[in-house]
Design brief:
Blueprint lengths: L8 H27 L4 H10 L18 H14 L1 H19 L5 H12 L4 E4 L17 E5 L2 E11 L7 E8 L5 E7 L5 E4 L13 E11 L3 E4 L2 H5 L7 H23 L13 H30 L7 H26 L9 H10 L8 H15 L2
Parallel strand pairs: 1-4, 2-4
Antiparallel strand pairs: 2-3, 3-7, 4-5, 5-8, 6-7
Helix pairs in contact: 1-2, 1-3, 3-4, 3-7, 3-8, 4-7, 7-8, 7-9, 7-10, 8-9, 9-10, 9-11
The structure holds flavin-adenine dinucleotide (FAD).
């Protein structure tokens, strides 16, 4: 087992719950990955276990309420079982946490949303589009909302809509027709004109069901425009996005566990005893361990800083750093795990080849490395002005 970051009795209890789920998901992960199938059963179990409503604060009826540190701890463990499932539910849990933290939308919508989630509803945002790419780059959505009387008419196509097969509500980011403004529209999955096109066919995170969302003249109420994208909102740091590095480090831990067990047990007839006695293997294990621990300490300490600070406005660069270090370390750890195991790691039946494919996706989740590095450089220049 890797070094524990559990600090409280509550974390211990929730960790036990998530470990049971992760172990079950681990048994199914290869099957879902190979078929490129969405793991419906995992989501059923996440719902019935209460996991999907964990980030609803206690004052809104949630049983636990999660700190960012708790979220990172649980998501990292879940990803050890199945990276795709962890990333998917991470969007929902994180976005929910952020909604209540920042008191986004209006009070009425937020309270209504809490009730839905407590009854098992799942939410994610659809921001990415084929032409605008990652919304973090600042492109204007081609999905548009047009006002007709007191209704909104929404049309467009969103790509990468993770968890599409089980979403109940989707936060669609759209341009307001005839203006320069962009807003978030809350769309019920079952509304007429909302369809999912099953386009998700990647080599990585195959079980996330990140299909295209197609919106054809979807009629929405006035108050379904839940938030305008203001310059103030855009610069607010997003602590909740640490569910992403937590997921990729979880995948790396699974790879590390596999490789260390292998090195302990595999004993070719050219040596006496297992390969862990070979200096080069032990060295690679040590290097893997150092990288993993370093990344985990950065991630957990920044999550903890977020939880402790009242003014979080300056935390953006550090949050980006946590993601940058975690995702790149995760890629490197999986690579080292495969070197330890050798050519067997390439066999289709070996989980390492899935981890190898899955960790790559971290590079293409926000924030992207070049943006983090640019932010850190700006910070350094500003400090010396
Ligand atoms: C597994 C997975 C799950 C995801 N889930 C969701 C989800 O639930 N909801 C959602 O909305 N999105 C989701 N995404 C999408 C993700 O957030 C990105 O929007 C998506 O991966 C596209 O990013 P990109 O950098 O590849 O694309 P692009 O933005 O098209 O960029 C492609 C390349 O062009 C360059 N580039 C483009 N524009 C610029 C620029 N302005 N400045 C500098 N360089 C630029 C970059 O080098 C980049 O590598 C998911 C992605 C993955 C991989």
């Amino acid at each position: 087992m890797p070094i524990s970051f559990i600090k409280t009795e509550k974390q211990e209890r929730l960790y036990k719950l998530v470990s049971e789920l992760a172990d079950k998901f681990n048994e199914r992960a290869a099957k879902y990955d190979e078929a490129g199938e969405f793991p419906l059963l995992n989501f059923e179990e996440l719902r019935t276990s209460g996991y999907t409503s964990l980030s609803i604060p206690k004052e809104h009826g949630g049983e636990e309420g999660l700190s960012l540190y708790d979220l990172v701890l649980l998501q990292e463990r879940l990803a050890q079982g199945d990276g795709s499932t962890a990333l998917s539910i991470g969007w929902h849990l994180g976005a929910t946490m952020d909604l209540f933290d920042k008191k986004r939308w209006n009070d009425e919508k937020r309270l209504w949303y809490a009730k839905q989630v407590l009854q098992g509803a799942l939410f994610n945002r659809a921001a990415t589009e084929p032409q605008t790419g990652s919304p973090t780059r600042g492109g204007k959505p081609q999905t548009t909302a047009k006002k007709e009387g007191n209704k909104w008419i929404l049309s467009g196509r969103k790509t990468f809509t993770t968890m599409a097969p089980v979403l109940d509500y989707i936060g669609v980011i759209a341009s307001i027709d005839g203006t320069d403004q962009v807003g978030e529209f809350l769309v019920e999955r079952t509304k007429p004109g909302v369809t999912i096109e099953e386009t998700w066919d990647t080599i990585s995170m195959r079980g996330t069901g990140s299909h295209d969302l197609v919106l054809s003249n979807v009629v929405l109420e006035e108050d379904d425009l839940v938030e305008m994208s203001t310059p103030e909102l855009k610069v607010q740091p997003n602590g909740w996005l640490l569910h992403i590095p937590a997921c990729y480090l979880g995948i790396a831990i699974a790879a590390r566990n596999y490789a260390v067990t292998f090195a302990n047990e595999y004993s070719p007839n050219s040596i006496i005893g297992p390969i862990k006695t070979i200096p080069n293997v032990a060295r690679t294990v040590g290097e893997m361990e150092a990288e993993l621990l370093q990344a985990r300490h950065v991630l957990y300490s920044i999550a903890d800083k977020w939880d402790r600070l009242d003014d979080r406005s300056q935390l953006g660069p550090e949050l980006g750093l946590a993601k940058y270090i975690a995702t790149n370390s995760a890629i490197s750890v999986v690579d080292k795990a495969m070197r330890i195991v050798g050519a067997r790691s390439l066999q289709k039946s070996n989980p390492l080849q899935r981890y190898y494919r899955d960790v790559r996706a971290g590079l293409h989740n926000p924030p992207m490395d070049d943006m983090t590095i640019a932010k850190l450089a700006n910070l350094a220049f500003k400090e010396m002005e």
